[in-house]
Amino acid sequence: MGIGLASDPAGAKPRSGAGFWPHGWWRIMEIRIGIVPIPVYLLLLALFAGFIATGSIPSEISVAIALLTVGGFTCAEIGKRAPLLRNIGAAAIFATFVPSYLVYAHALPDMLVKSVTDFTKSSNFLYLFIAAIIVGSILSMDRRVLIGGFLRIFVPLASGSVAAGLVGTAVGWALGLGLSHTFFFVVVPIMAGGVGEGAIPLSIGYSGILHQDQGGLFAQVLPPVMLGSLTAILLSGTLNHVGKRLPHLTGEGRLQPDEHDEVDLGSEKETAHVDVGHVGAAGITAIALYMVGVLGQRVLGFPGPIIMLILAVIAKLAQAVSPQVQSGAFVVYNFFRTTVTYPLLFAIGVALTPWDKLIAAFTFANLVTIVATVVTLIATGFFVGRWMKMYPIEAAIVNACHSGQGGTGDVAILTAANRMQLMPFAQIATRIGGAITVTGTLIFLAWITK
Predict the structure, then answer these.
(1) What global pTM score does this model have?
(2) Residues 218-267: pLDDT tens digits?
(3) I need a labelling partner for 195 at 20 to 30 A (CA). Which of 24, 32, 364, 413 fits?
(4) Number of folded domains that form the chain
(5) In angstroms, rounded to a whole number, what is the distance separating the alpha carbons of residues 330 and 252?
(6) CA distance 4 to 404
């Protein structure tokens, strides 16, 4: 993907003496910004300029998709060409944080920001993306190692959480932040599971226990969440670079040796009949499982994405989904991974990533404490994962998601690491790990303040 000349489509090679049309034009159409052909890209830029000149951008889904696609892939292409940073996940970083800064600096037209923000918050398409990635990756996973992987990942995750808590608190205390402040307002928020599932319930719990204003407490715990996520993105991109240099340390997205994508091993008879209908069936299956998760969260209070994940695992182990639909799910997974990731990150940057809150954490003591916490979490995952006979880079990246900004952080971290197939394990680290962190912390705080 990127700016470049793709291979000529069948019949597109110009014949000797042939004119520019149509073969020369076809070659231009194969030069792309991300997935967008250059002529279409320029046309979309002109159209958005026209809409802005007329005073409004239509709120239709088609226009929103075009806007996010242009913005996301433009930022990603710049990141892919940034010296040094391009090797450590700059595409994901640029797609998320450049639009966040542009909004803060008022460099984007207000109507464009409003269009992106309204669409992102009303459609909640982050969870459509997560549903497609989770269901697609699980249904194409080797079921013989599926359960083993889910159970074993808790060991490096738990070890990393304890080690990161101890090291981060010690570093913050040594830098003068205070023992209690460092633990409750810097270290714990990093591993709390993001904003909606972490910082908000954490600040509400703190407010009730400490009898302080929830808004002020939220303002304190939010910056470490965001800066911790940024640190995890950078380190995960670095791990991807290390994996290219030291391939024996990585499974290229597979958590355990001898693991494989089961759809790759299906017989030709099972997979030959996969058609658009099977792809559609896989897509609606993912949506149905997501809806079960939403309803389950309302009734049981358990995180919806985790319910969806568990159901997908059960369906896979029980062979409740045909091989053709499993192959269709793999197509859905690849489609969303390739075409939706950067537009989604752009939307997150515009609508859900306040730049001022991010830079508020850039004091020396805070910065060193946050980096020490995330580095310890990831390093522990690396070494414990290796001891557990897992690929150490993959185990470390899953641990990195425990310090991410919820579902948005998982997407950015796995994109920077080029390992989107780890999304099911990332959700365990973020949702379950975050819930345990928040619950345990509030119980501990209530106990020591009695």
Answers:
(1) 0.78
(2) 778 878 888 898 899 999 999 999 999 999 999 888 888 765 555 544 44
(3) 364
(4) 2
(5) 17
(6) 32
